[in-house]
């Protein structure tokens, strides 16, 4: 994930003094309410009254007890942030006005996330939120031998955008108990990690990421620090109205871990980290069925639909090993089975992510098998058994313009080469300046989140 981070300069009132990565007191942190359901066999579902929290990377960071920014645009204030520890001691995260500043609203079991929100301080671009079990703890999901279901409306997500739903193996408290200098915790959305070992995170493990920070030359709000934050990632849904994929990304460990420099991977060192950056993706268009998903297609992205993801184990119990990730859709009162593979060298009966699918797809497309190197489905299963945090986001891509999801990628290869064509978007689409400038009304709506026993969360 490479979301654009919107950061603001705000004139704020007196703030609380802290020692470590602290919190301010100008804007109260009130988490928007969001309900979801836990279901059991027989179709019985219990409503959970939960809430969401905004990721810490989107929040205003300022000098403790002062209006002064610690971070402005895409640079740190070096007088406050001479070192990562100094920065954490000197700076505080502020509360969020979810609707006015970030375009995030909830109603019952529905969450709406706008891509661009104009406000008194400029414009917010994209956002990322997490489900909370309480005001200080993330909701942790353990999904082996279970299914996860939600409704989605991507009708207003064009080329170059990604409305993503995924599980990240973050700490339940955002890292507070492991890192004593983290005073903000899950209440303020700290502790993010994913399989890209992202280095654009401003605070990692209770310290700033200011040392070695390089402002991005193509993004006025972001940059890369000297450290990154790695963990297992299960992408349930990465999509816009044109294309979609679901993708497991294993890492070697089973908890969030801080990396440094080239050990974070990326760029020329893409496969140098402890995580699999590519994953094993099932994108129906890339797998040869170009009529399955999109506007007016079998799964019609012009209208709301339901996504069901099932995590099948080898024993049919929660103590087994993950052997298959199965996908179903429900739309217009009908259950729609996932598309079949239509790629030379792959079994045409394949319609889910399993060991055969992943191994043969890597061979057919000539891709590096980083997925297998880092433990494949078995490792993702171990991660899921331990528990992970649900992430919901909307973002654009300053690295590859989202072409890896919805166009032909890499762009220097013939689109007829197996695995290159991933959607119908033009290879010139997805440029952030273009999608941000034409973002009026662009949004994604997530609703009706459910999880529980296989077959319990949906009906035809």
From TrEMBL:
The keyword Repeat does not apply. InterPro entries: ConA-like_dom_sf, Glyco_hydro_7, Glyco_hydro_7_sf. One of its GO terms (molecular function) is cellulose 1,4-beta-cellobiosidase activity. Its EC number is 3.2.1.-. The keyword Protein biosynthesis does not apply. It catalyses: Hydrolysis of (1->4)-beta-D-glucosidic linkages in cellulose and cellotetraose, releasing cellobiose from the non-reducing ends of the chains. Residues 1-20 form the signal peptide. Gene3D superfamilies: Glycoside hydrolase, family 7, domain (2.70.100.10). GO terms for biological process: cellulose catabolic process. Keywords: Carbohydrate metabolism, Cellulose degradation, Glycosidase, Hydrolase, Polysaccharide degradation, Signal. Transmembrane segments: none annotated. PANTHER family: 1,4-BETA-D-GLUCAN CELLOBIOHYDROLASE B (PTHR33753), GLYCOSIDE HYDROLASE FAMILY 7 PROTEIN (PTHR33753:SF2). Belongs to the glycosyl hydrolase 7 (cellulase C) family. This is Glucanase.
């Amino acid at each position: 994930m490479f979301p654009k981070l919107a950061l603001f300069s705000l004139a704020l009132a007196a703030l609380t003094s802290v020692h470590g990565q602290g919190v301010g007191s100008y804007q109260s942190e009130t988490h928007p309410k969001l309900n979801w359901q836990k279901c059991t066999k027989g179709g019985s579902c219990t409503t959970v009254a939960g809430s969401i929290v905004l990721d810490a990377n989107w929040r205003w960071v300022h000098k403790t007890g002062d209006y002064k920014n610690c971070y402005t645009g895409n640079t740190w204030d070096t007088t406050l942030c001479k070192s990562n520890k100094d920065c954490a001691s000197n700076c505080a995260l502020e509360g969020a006005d979810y609707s006015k500043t970030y375009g995030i609203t909830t109603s019952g079991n529905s969450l709406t996330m706008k891509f661009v929100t104009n406000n008194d301080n400029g414009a917010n671009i994209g956002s990322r939120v997490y489900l909370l079990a309480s005001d200080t703890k993330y909701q942790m999901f353990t999904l082996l031998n279970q299914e996860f279901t939600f409704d989605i409306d991507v009708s207003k997500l064009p080329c170059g955008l990604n409305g993503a739903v995924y599980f990240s193996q973050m700490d339940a408290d955002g890292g507070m108990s492991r890192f004593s200098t983290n005073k903000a915790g899950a209440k303020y959305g700290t502790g993010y990690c994913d399989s890209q070992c992202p280095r654009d995170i401003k605070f990692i493990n209770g310290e700033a990421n200011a040392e070695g920070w390089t402002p991005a030359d193509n993004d006025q709000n972001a940059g890369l620090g000297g450290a990154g934050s790695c963990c297992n990632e299960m992408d349930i849904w990465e999509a816009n109205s044109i294309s979609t994929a679901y993708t497991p990304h294993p890492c070697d460990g089973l908890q969030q871990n801080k990396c440094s420099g080239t050990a974070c991977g990326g760029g020329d060192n893409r496969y140098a980290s402890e995580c699999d950056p590519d994953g094993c993706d099932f994108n129906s268009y890339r797998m040869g069925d170009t009529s399955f998903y999109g506007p007016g297609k079998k799964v019609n992205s012009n209208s709301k639909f339901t996504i069901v993801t099932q995590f099948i184990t080898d024993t049919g119990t929660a103590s087994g090993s993950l052997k298959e990730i199965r996908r179903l859709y429900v739309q217009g009162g009908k259950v729609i089975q996932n598309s079949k593979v239509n790629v030379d060298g792959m079994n045409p009966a394949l319609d889910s992510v399993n060991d055969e699918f992943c191994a043969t797809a890597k061979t057919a497309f000539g891709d590096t098998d980083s997925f297998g190197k880092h433990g494949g489905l078995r490792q993702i299963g171990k991660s899921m058994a331990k528990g992970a945090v649900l992430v919901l986001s909307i973002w654009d891509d300053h690295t590859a313009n989202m072409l890896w999801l919805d166009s032909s990628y890499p762009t220097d290869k013939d689109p007829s080469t197996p695995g290159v064509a991933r959607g119908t978007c033009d290879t010139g689409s997805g440029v952030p300046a273009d999608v941000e400038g034409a973002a009026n009304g662009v949004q994604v709506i997530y609703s009706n989140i459910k999880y529980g026993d296989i077959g319990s969360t949906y009906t035809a």
